[in-house]
Design goal:
Blueprint (H helix, E strand, L loop, with lengths): L6 E6 L23 H18 L2 E7 L24 H6 L5 H14 L1 H12 L3 E5 L10 H12 L12 E3 L4 E3 L4 E3 L28 H13 L12 H9 L10 H14 L7 H22 L3 H8 L6 H4 L2 H9 L6 H15 L3 E4 L6 E7 L5 E6 L11 H8 L4 E8 L4 E10 L4 E4 L11
Parallel strand pairs: 1-2, 2-3, 3-4, 6-7, 7-9
Antiparallel strand pairs: 1-10, 5-6, 8-9, 10-11, 11-12
Helix pairs in contact: 1-4, 3-5, 6-8
């Protein structure tokens, strides 16, 4: 019988919080997360279970906690001292410099006060929060942003000690040998959303070098959401575009609106091209240094980290011409659950954990990817999303509901006398988690 760990792990991902509620009580039109009260009750439930069982929780947010790409409000320049705004920023929202991102953080916390107060209360009760960056919130790599977030959360409730000490930002993955867990967001296996230098994704000016998918959001989908507020909640996005093109004549005229959107699409394609040659060496050296730091922090050998990194796919933005980038975008639906199961299988071979967890796809999944010599199953889990997913028909809509309010729960089970993993869906009316309903299917079938 194994020793009982003092904590259990709850994993959520892809919450996509953005500007939230304004001072008049209206939601910002591009907001995808309006479940603050539900999440508050979810955390209260975890707290109750922890108190009953005499353990504490580690809450892991496995990427895309925040959607900094959908902050489109632009303040007066005097609000951010020393910063000026480009014409494009005034059109599509502020860029990724640290000062501008700190302003977004203030707007985030103010717009989701119930959510972040619940987080603070959860931490004040002795639990921990771990945050991984995703492709929509890569800005978490900024030390200044991390420090400001800890300070803001700590100020929301009265607590003994500094709540910031209970918040950990991880640069790449969460590795837990005690529970045998490896978790990462998963966007590094998607060329539209991957970063060539994920651990040091900076431009020369200190802003973030975004991937193609981020520009599609900023230049195209944020504009489309002015007409269709849930445009990016239909997966895959290419399916939505086909659906929307047949309906634009209902909204503000045809073809002028379509021409405008194709212009934004073209603006993204024009971003294609390699990183400046004189900057590549600096990025390579910086990322190598970060890998060394991650190896020391995680107790995973540097050789294993290099083996994991070898499976990252190259950024389509920097390694495709505009025609190839267009092809990657239109062919992005090939990144189905089978693809991510294969990627998880490669990760498991390197790190040897029983549970490999991704997010990113918004599609909950659970499958056995290999079997250990002791006949224990090694499993891949996808933590789905907490945002709404929309579908073209009723049957598909019922299936997509199973990808919402999903969380992975891992901890010691007294009956089993060992570690147990469950893929669950938070049932808010019942105030408990229930098993996600997944149907067994073979590769090549839906």
């Amino acid at each position: 019988m194994m020793e009982r760990p003092p904590y259990k792990l709850a994993v959520v991902s892809d919450l996509h919080l953005s500007e939230g509620w304004d001072e008049d009580g209206y939601l910002q039109k591009k907001e995808d997360f309006f479940f603050d009260q539900s999440f508050k009750r979810f955390l209260a439930y975890l707290g109750e279970k922890a108190k009953e069982g005499d353990f504490h929780y580690r809450l892991l947010i496995n990427g895309d906690f925040v959607d900094f790409l959908q902050f489109t409000t632009v303040p007066g320049e005097e609000v951010i001292p020393g910063e000026t705004f480009t014409k494009r920023e005034r059109s599509v929202g502020l860029g990724t410099g640290e000062a501008k991102t700190l302003w977004k953080l203030d707007r985030l916390v103010n717009g989701h006060n119930v959510f972040f107060t619940a987080i603070a209360d959860f931490l004040a009760k002795g639990h921990q929060l771990f945050i991984l960056p995703g492709n929509h919130d890569i800005e978490w790599v900024m030390p200044g942003l991390q420090a400001s977030f800890k300070q803001r959360v700590s100020g929301l409730v009265e607590a003994a000690g500094d709540l910031g000490d209970r918040i950990t930002f991880l640069p790449w993955f969460y590795y837990d040998p005690l529970l045998s867990v490896f978790a990462e967001h998963g966007s590094q296996y998607d060329d539209i959303n991957s970063f060539d230098y994920f651990l040091w994704p900076y431009r020369k000016d200190g802003s973030i070098d975004l991937p193609a998918g981020s520009f599609f959001v900023r230049y195209l989908f944020n504009r489309i959401e002015e007409l269709y507020p849930f445009a990016d909640n239909m997966k895959p996005l290419t399916k939505f575009l086909g659906w929307a093109l047949t309906r634009f004549q209902t909204y503000r005229g045809w073809p002028p609106q379509v021409i405008t959107f194709f212009q934004f699409f073209w603006n993204t394609l024009r971003k294609a091209g390699p990183v400046q040659k004189d900057w590549v060496k600096e990025l390579q050296d910086r990322q190598m240094h970060e890998i060394e730091k991650v190896a020391q922090m995680s107790a995973l050998e540097e050789g294993k980290l290099q083996a994991l990194k070898s499976h990252w796919v190259r950024s389509a933005l920097h390694h495709q011409r505009w025609l190839g980038l267009l092809k990657s975008f239109c062919g992005n639906s090939k990144l189905d659950k089978w693809y991510y199961q294969d990627q998880a299988r490669e990760v498991q071979r390197v790190v040897g954990t029983r549970y490999t967890i991704f997010g990113h796809t918004h599609e909950a999944d659970l499958c056995t990817i290999s079997t250990s010599p002791d006949r224990k199953k090694n499993e891949y889990v996808n933590s789905g999303s907490w945002t709404k997913s929309f579908a073209a028909n009723h049957e598909e809509a019922l299936l997509k509901e199973e990808n919402e309010f999903v969380y992975v729960h891992i901890g010691y089970d007294e009956k089993k006398e060992g570690i147990k993993m469950d893929l669950l869906r938070w049932d808010d009316p019942l105030h408990e988690g229930e098993r996600v309903r997944l149907f067994r299917s073979e590769k090549g079938t839906k």
